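Deviations from the work plan: none for this task. Representative record:
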Amino acid sequence: MFELSQDHEDFRAMVRDFAEREVAPHVAEWDRAHHFPTDLAPKMGDLGLFGLVVPEEFGGSADPEGGPFTALCVAIEELGRIDQSIGITLSAGVGLGINPILTYGSPAQKERWLPDLVSGRALAAFGLTEPDAGSDAGATRTKASLDGDSWVVNGAKAFITNSGTEITSVVTVTARTGESADGRPEISAIMIPSGTTGFEVAPAYDKLGWNISDTHGLTFSDVRVPQENLLGDRGQGFKQFLKTLDDGRIAISALALGLLVRMREEATAYAQARTAFGRPIGVNQGVSFKVADLAVMEETARLLTYKAAWLKDQQELGKHSVAEVKQAAAIAKLYTSEAAVTATRLATQIFGGNGFMEEYPVARFYRDAKILEIGEGTSEVQRMVIARNLGLSS
Amino acid sequence: MNIVVCVKYVPDAQADRGFDESDLTTNRESVDGLLSELDEYAVEEALKIAEAGEGEVTVVTIGPDKAADAVKKALQMGADKGVHISDEAIRGSDAFATSLLLAKAIEKIGAPDLVITGMASTDGTMGVVPAMLAERLGLPQVTFASELTVDGDGVTIRRDGDTASETIIAKLPALVSVTDQINEPRYPSFKGIMAAKKKPVETWSLADLGVDAGAVGAAGAYTKVLSVTKRPPREQGQIVTDEGDGGSKLADFLASRKFI
């Protein structure tokens, strides 16, 4: 009950090998240069990482009985252990890029976009957040109106992952397409191919962390796309998006777990190697108790993350409810992301002055941790969801 | 094109390896094992050839129960089926006995068009099994290939030496050993990992191969390990102050260690 399948463990060994050989040697440099490694995406594609939840007909490997979402979490954890930006690139590429097209796309849309996305030759992004609409996604201002057989899109999106890479092929955005009978905005999802006239990608953000991850603001000025670029049903854009949120939260938990593993490893090794007053600093309880706490956080995060991932796979098989997954995802995301911030604080403290130096990876992880408490729903939103599921409506 | 790849399960070269003090064989208990990295190139090359045309890739290994992991890894990479030769009497076998067992197994699998091996194992590193195996099978031995092309009924390889590269052509069937320059071995995909479980693996004993226990193991060995010595501990580095002669001191040091 408390272990992953042998397939998942074999897969973990493979991803770890890949991450240590192909990613680890470069991340410090990429982070310093704020460089997104375009060449890495097809390598990840060759490993099948983008296709873990995609059926074979589109080039993926998903076998519902084989725990496909759990496998994705294993991959995100292992990449995240080496670098958080690379982990989020996979998480967003699958959860926000591929999943909406896979779940709501027409046969023509799937055929057009999925093969390249699954092979890592292309990346897709999802634009929901706006400069004035974050967690309150219903406040979307971007508008799309039908003009003949085209949608004309106007507006702006903010903080969109994987939206401006050299291989970004399409960005799906949520936009108001009218008003429903009760006066609430009708929100739909529309696919906008990269390079469409009027679709501008702003220069990369200057961020606190996740420097290797590609994040941009996007603006749309009279952007015209064919009517058939509507993704899913008109007026269902918001609802469709909400359904993908739970997956994203579990994926962020896996990313945070990768960080927690690394902090425990780094802190343990440093506590044994660094000496002060003639003995390793790890013999002092002021240090060793911090390392013990890191181990507890890691173990708790592992149980919560894989419990949620397992529930998600079980729900796909019809064995558990969406409500159970929602609660488990919110609990896992809340705990692991807050633990990640605490863990990087403890680990850098153990490293002393060196922990403040970019020469040591703990410094990069310290910068990278904070966003985990914000993205895919802030900690406050997770508490709202959890409380609501307990019958305490806000 | 039917290809047999011989692979070895070895102690992880990254770990602290040692010998079993009772019989001076490799200690396989205390160190994790894996498919020898040099054999990954052989598996990759076989898969590339098989994928370019039609054919089947069979991997063969010899070793204790855990050696099945080497076969499993090759199957995860994409090989079609596996053979694991396992028998208590094999413990302590040398290269000579290893080549005998592999030859018998390959005969039992059925005449392949091509046998591919790595250039050496990462533990024993003798590199003699490919030649011995080719001799036993009566195949042309084309060793240390840094490039391999199969065309019609022959193979062409490039063997890189210190001063020249040789091109060697042989008729099929043949045995080719490959170096770590020949390709970039693939990582198994999740699809490959799941598919590997359904691929056939046969386990053969000495009796299955018709090999007498006296011909293998320590009893049948032509070589004997007399003693083993631990690698000396790392010494403290030496700091040389440059007083205008730093360059020649560095050169003297390298020369004294036979680096130049």
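Chain B has a mean pLDDT of 92.
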